[in-house]
Amino acid sequence: MLLDVQDLRASLGGRPVLNGVSFSVMAGEFVGLIGPNGAGKSTLLRALLGLTPADGAIALGALAAAHVSARERARHMAYVAQEREIAWAVPVEMLVGLGRSPHRPSFASLALADRNAIDAAMRKMEVDSFRDRAATELSGGEKARVLIARALAQETPLLLADEPTSGLDPSHQITLMRLFADLATSGRSVVASLHDLGLAARWCTRLLLIDAGRIVADGPPDEVLTAQTLRDVYGVEAFFGETAGGLIVQPLDLVAVDTGARP
Ligand SMILES: Nc1ncnc2c1ncn2[C@@H]1O[C@H](COP(=O)(O)OP(=O)(O)OP(=O)(O)O)[C@@H](O)[C@H]1O
């Protein structure tokens, strides 16, 4: 077990945002965190990282998160934030290299293993062709890919990503989902918040549906993404299909509001 969360509760601005969230993540899972705007997905990810104060118990492997140093935590899990702002005009390669910090002494030069991890991460996210460019001068989607590459270079058992596909073109969305699925197949785990239910349905091994700070469904995509659930939680009607590659879910329209008026 890579991550265990019990009864997580958090408040922001005096309002409860997480209302008792419990789940575990095993090695080999690609978990999609889905739910409407404001449901608490980012807050949950940030609480797992210790960035948002929360009550409850978080265990990283066999250790209580509270007893794990920041450096050890960064060796256990990497994080891709929703915000893609890059403040420093450093070359892309250097930014991706920051992902190696938890693995090497401060100010030490890069070892061969670090170089290999950085190169592999840049290749996977297709950012190696602009490795020498200033990270501040990239497009939104390119910045996103560089920040994901930095997290990949960290080579952690667990990767947390907040809306990693937003701003990516369809080809790079699929590249990313395939990469996350491959990481899971190789025994690592990914927890990614996603708004694209089609991508979530097709690539995730498991979905956690959050609504108003609570997990309201947890299971394989075809069990979580039902017509009734999409009506209840998102207020949308959707098309469902089945292909050899998996489930297809495409939201089509808002649920018709019954005004009670007679025709
Ligand atoms: N710094 C803050 N202060 C007060 N309230 C906050 C703060 N950050 C988030 N919230 C509130 O907490 C709730 C959950 O926000 P969160 O960002 O976790 O939602 P989310 O599910 O990630 O949403 P989205 O899909 O829009 O990114 C929202 O109601 C939001 O307004």
From TrEMBL:
Positions of the ABC transporter domain: 3-237
UniProt keyword DNA-binding, yes or no: no
GO MF annotation list: ATP binding
UniProt-listed Gene3D superfamilies: P-loop containing nucleotide triphosphate hydrolases (3.40.50.300)
Family (UniProt): Belongs to the ABC transporter superfamily.
Described function: Part of the ABC transporter complex HmuTUV involved in hemin import. Responsible for energy coupling to the transport system.
Full protein name: Iron complex transport system ATP-binding protein
Organism (species): Aminobacter ciceronei
